[in-house]
Amino acid sequence: MCSILAAIILAYCLGFRCGLAYQSQTPGLVSAAPETIDLFQQAETRHAAGFHADETLDEQFRVFWEAWDLVDDDFYGDLPAQRERIYGAIKGMVASLGDEHTLFLTPQEAAILSSADSGRFEGIGATVQIDEQIGYPRITQLVAGQPASRAGLLAGDVILAIDDVSTHAMSILDVVSLIRGPKDSIVQLTVQRPRDDAPESFVVPVIRQEIEIPVVETEMLEGGVAYLRLAEFNSVASKKLKAELQSLLERKPAGLILDLRGNPGGYLHVAVEVASQFVSSGTIVTEKSGDGSENTFEVKPGGLATSPALPLAVLIDAGSASAAEIVAAAIRDSGRGILIGETSFGKSSVQMPHELSDGSELRVTVARWFAPNGYALEDGLSPDIAVTATVEDLQAHRDPQKDRAVEYLMKSH
């Protein structure tokens, strides 16, 4: 598929929740009422509390307020609300770190990410990815029977606008924020369908409903090959995967496909539990902190599908990130199975989430993950067998990656 920044409307922005096995720290010093914020007083408070504030911090913040006042006095146009401008300033500070995974999230953005852990939210039931070649979100998957599919949307459709707001160069969290909304409300999607007989663009009204994320999906394929898709590593993923895997194994499959495509990650401890269902022994992942300390996560005994007599193939693509990459790397490095598809996203950092006093959130990179063979995951995992899925494949409901996995497993049996 085209080069994409993968993220999932059904769940959350990719990989952000990986590392959330950490407990949230004490909320930071961000006021719930921006109009009353006194950053100078906060700097003095932090210094008195032993935060080792820079002695010139007051002076440096005076420059900030000079700029703030000039915008207030001179800007020609409508000014955003004070809260929105302060959030923008915080995001600018975080961006100056040069780390794309250290993030500030507004309360709305934080709520979007956290809602996925329950497996339920109010939306349209579609998976999208930002297509970097065109700068717009593209629908890659529809949940059967849900609002998006009932409204006539198709995989491969490009979303040009949401309620007349252009989506060009929009972040995936902004796309999610606009598409989600209260149950029974209507969202208007301006869509372009890459097909010769389709109009240039058209509007599709979709009635939002409560969506339940299908965390695990299974089926038996030709040749007795078992197929298991894991959508994310949320709090119920390990339990559901184990139950469905047990049911598949009772049917004595000739091979097994673990589909991690489009899986943005999730909890680290869930990744260890999932990988342990397929790997019999050894290291799953090593976490290295900035202070030089290391924490190694080993296989948990008792996995259901660890026998080499059952050939295993793992499907990955550019949407496979973080916890999904940990599992895929552990399976390949242990010799338990191979990877088929496209190069994964590449995320090896660990974020510590801090809930701030107004419901916003700061996620700070505190460590990096390394695969069992010692390499970082930041460059993505290259598949052992490369197979590309095109937009035309999506529209025609073809899955050449799954087909290639079936072919490989039938020959391996």
What's this entry about, in short?
This protein has 413 residues and is of the alpha+beta class. It has eleven helices and 20 strands. Helix 7 (237-249) runs parallel beside helix 8 and helix 8 (268-275) packs parallel to helix 9 (323-333).
- Rounded mean pLDDT score: 85
The span between the termini is 29 Å
Low-confidence stretches: 1-52
The total of helices stands at 11
Q: How is the main sheet built?
A: 6 strands, mixed
Helix content: 25-40%
Q: What is the approximate shape?
A: globular
Whole-angstrom Rg:
23 Å
Strand order of the largest sheet: 11-12-13-16-17-20
Q: Count of DSSP E strands?
A: 20
What is the percentage of strand-forming residues? 25-35%
SS-based structural class?
alpha+beta
